[in-house]
Amino acid sequence: MSTFDAEAPDPFTLFLRGLVLNLLSFLLTTVVFGLVVALVVLLQRAGFDLFSLVWLGVLPIGAFVIGLFIAFGFYKISIVLEVKPTAWTALFSVLLAVMAAGAIHYSHYVLFGGAAGDFRTFLAWLDGTLRHMKFGVTIYGYEVGGAAGGPEMGLWGYGAAFFQVLALAAGGLLPLAFLWERPYCLEDRKFYKTLLKPVLRFGGSGREAEGLRGAEEGSRGYFDKVRALPPGDSQELEWELYRCPKCAKETLVERVFEVKEGKRVPWTIKHRVIRLARGRSVETEVGSFSLE
What we know:
Low-confidence stretches: 137-147
Distance between the termini: 19 Å
Order of helices and strands: EHHHHEEHEEEEHEEEEH
Number of strands: 11
Number of domains: 2
Mean pLDDT: 77
Number of helices: 7
Helix content: 40-55%
């Protein structure tokens, strides 16, 4: 098993770097937020209300897509700046969702002749709009509730607006979930890079993979147990080996799936993250399976 000699970074320097990069990422995300909201408002003025777009009459797919666009900007910024999302990031995303909904409703109010800058009039307009919103569903060209829409929603209109905000927040948090799952070196403040991703097919009932838990993670005994898995095609073991580009610390992600008719069964996944100590490498061992 290979080893590396890596010097521990200065904690204070890393703290300052992390603070500056987090503030910069929040600033750039706010810029992306402004651009996306501006685009939605322009589409609204052109006659296409993306924010109000729903699927099957109830799912606010338009709000979800807007949240997704905003979060995708943050995702790319985080990758470039190598900033790991935190609980504050999630809170910031929810705040942006509320602000986006407010900005879109306000632009709608001004578009229909409302006085810009009159906040009390805007709130009264918003209350009337939500209460008098009509519920109607179009299914295969048939409009349930008639061409004029269904019944007025009353106070339920506030529920629909809240549901839109939730959809915005959900769209905003989805890309962040991928960043949270991605291995990250807290000591060097860098995302791990993927080195290898071999896939091994084996047979048995699936309990064979549980035997891997009995060996020390990343040890020679662990890899010997993998080599001893029975031949076949009913199970699949996928490894993803990551390494910090600075200190060379490694993380091995292990996923086991059942295979039916040549395809993975997603809900059967067994996931484990093996974090190796600084200086230990399993690249040679994992790479040997890629050649088999």
